[in-house]
Amino acid sequence: MKDDENxxxxxxxxxxxxxxxAGCAFSLITDAAKGDTxxxxxxxxxxxxxxxxxxxxxxxLFLKEPVT
Length: 68
Hints:
Elements: E1 5-6, E2 16-17, E3 20-25, E4 37-40, E5 43-53, E6 58-64
C-alpha cells in the first residue's frame, strides 16, 4: 500500500493508520519533520506525521511514498 489511510471508528477519537513505518534511534533524526523525505533502499518516502518517540528514545516514522 502506498498511501496513508484515515480510519474513523465512529467516536471522538479518529486514529490514523499508516501502511509504511520505519524506526530508528531518535538521536539520528532529531530534526525530521512532517513533509521531509527519507530514502530507504532506493525508494523515497515522505514523512507523513511528526515522528513519535517513546520513553526508550526509539522513534517511529510514519511514511508515505511521494506522488510521482
